[in-house]
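F.,

This is the one I mentioned.
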């Protein structure tokens, strides 16, 4: 088999990261090896995101830059996958004449066949057919990075139809994967050295319901029983479906991390109704309180949309007030943008760009205050962190015989700590291998807006 290089540019959410891994695995069976260098690639795949206007613009500006590469290397195959591919289909071929393949969110399984067709006939192919069910692949392990953490998609699509959201149109109806397939995939990942799994779905709390499978908390129990796995995370939970059983799972399952992403989107009942979120501000706050009664230390994060159509000053103030009540550990906030097919695109009372920008800034400033407050409050405490590996800053400090490592607390906070080579093994390589993927106790010595600093509690932490 001829060996060729594949470069994948993944834009967007964790689900796309997972899909890109599947794509790399499938195409490896045709002889394609992943490369980190665009210039060396025989095929470039852009895995796209359509969630907000900005993400879509990023796709087309990247594709624009591909024109030159294709001129220099006409045999280069350019593929566009993911949500923008699903949404735009054939239009992409018209708009970007140097694209060879457009494949939608349900076409990944058919990609090897499509690529072979393009290679042999040099034709252009569009496949955006939406098929029921979820494709299961037996993939060769192609990732030779010393990863300790991986995503595993447990369900696809969404049935909620929030009025601003494009997901139900580009990912289709909600479908859950069979629990046996999920557990087998996780067992294989753990065998290859993975220590932490993040389960992915648009609304994990409705996992299995439609198809009469086990419930999400039951699935979590099965994952918790996988030997060798150290940590479990998941995202995203829809507040309307956050059950008591799931709240107790945080308390009862030792591997489940102490963090929930619970997007509220707005603090105003009027806006929540227009968004079709199916919960009120009061119900959301009640669930947060219940959760904190069951798990007092749980970290809560959220998503917020600034400037949804019709959002008055008073609606916006209610969002800020809700943030002051909840005191999120972290928060992602976005300016509202119209999306194709999403009903809010035709709502009246659109908010001006400048107002959206100002509101976004206010949300982010307020959140920075709480993130910092929470991080500073951790100073002096001890946290268990799973070590991810060397931090990016590392090369600067190597000459002091020190290495900076990075890891995460169960509550999903980044902690950096210094490891002095004199204290450890003979070589830095041994130290890196020994520490990466281990859970160690760290005393937190400082807190910043985006991370914490600490030092290992036990002098024998390497053993
Ligand atoms: N405009 C702005 N933000 C959006 N999101 C989803 N759709 C839109 C949109 N049209 C945000 C929501 C969601 C996150 C993934 O992206 O906050 O939770
Ligand atoms: Fe979009 Fe709402 Fe579904 Fe989330 S729950 S993917 S915001 S439609």
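My design for it:
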């Amino acid at each position: 088999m001829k060996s060729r290089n594949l470069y994948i540019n993944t834009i967007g959410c964790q689900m796309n990261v997972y899909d890109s891994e599947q794509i790399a695995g499938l195409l490896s069976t045709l002889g394609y090896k992943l490369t980190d260098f665009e210039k060396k690639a025989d095929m470039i795949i852009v895995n796209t995101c359509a969630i907000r206007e900005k993400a879509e613009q990023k796709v087309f500006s990247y594709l624009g830059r591909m024109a030159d590469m294709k001129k220099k290397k006409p045999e280069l195959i350019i593929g566009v996958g993911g949500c923008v591919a699903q949404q735009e289909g054939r239009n992409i071929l018209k708009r970007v004449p140097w694209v060879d393949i457009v494949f939608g969110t349900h076409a990944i399984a058919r990609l090897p066949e499509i690529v072979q067709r393009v290679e042999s006939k040099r034709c252009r192919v569009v496949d955006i057919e939406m098929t029921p069910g979820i494709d299961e692949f037996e993939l060769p392990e192609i990732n030779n990075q010393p990863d300790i953490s991986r995503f595993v998609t447990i369900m696809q699509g969404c049935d909620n139809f929030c009025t601003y959201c494009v997901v139900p149109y580009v990912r289709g109806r909600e479908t859950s994967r069979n629990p046996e397939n999920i557990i087998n995939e996780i067992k294989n990942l753990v065998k290859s050295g993975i220590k932490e799994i993040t389960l992915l779905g648009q609304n994990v709390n409705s996992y299995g319901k439609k198809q009469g499978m086990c419930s999400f908390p039951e699935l979590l129990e099965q994952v918790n029983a996988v030997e060798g796995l150290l940590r479990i995370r998941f995202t995203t939970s829809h507040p309307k479906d956050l059950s008591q059983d799931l709240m107790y799972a945080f308390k009862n399952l030792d591997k489940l991390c102490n963090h929930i992403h619970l997007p509220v989107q707005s603090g105003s009942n009027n806006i929540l109704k227009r968004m079709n979120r199916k919960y009120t501000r009061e119900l959301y706050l009640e669930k947060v309180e219940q959760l904190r009664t069951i798990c007092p230390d749980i970290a809560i994060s959220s998503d917020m949309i600034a400037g949804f159509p019709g959002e008055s000053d008073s609606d916006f103030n209610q969002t800020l007030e809700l943030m002051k009540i909840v005191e999120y550990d972290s928060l992602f906030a976005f300016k509202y943008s119209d999306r194709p097919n999403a009903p809010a695109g035709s709502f009246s009372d659109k908010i001006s760009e400048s107002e959206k920008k100002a509101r976004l800034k206010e949300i982010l400033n307020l959140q920075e205050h709480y993130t910092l407050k929470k991080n500073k409050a951790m100073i002096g405490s001890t946290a268990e962190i799973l070590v991810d590996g060397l931090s990016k800053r590392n090369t600067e400090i190597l000459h002091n015989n020190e290495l900076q490592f990075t890891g995460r607390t169960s509550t999903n906070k980044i902690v950096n700590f210094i490891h002095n080579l004199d204290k450890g093994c003979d070589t830095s390589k041994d130290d890196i291998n020994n520490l990466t993927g281990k859970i160690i106790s760290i005393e937190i010595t400082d807190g910043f807006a985006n991370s914490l600093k600490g030092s290992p509690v036990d002098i024998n932490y390497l053993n």
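The pocket of 5'-deoxyadenosine (ligand 1) is lined by residues 51-52, 164-165, 263, 265, 303, 305, 334, 336-337, 339 (CB under 6 Å).

Talk soon.
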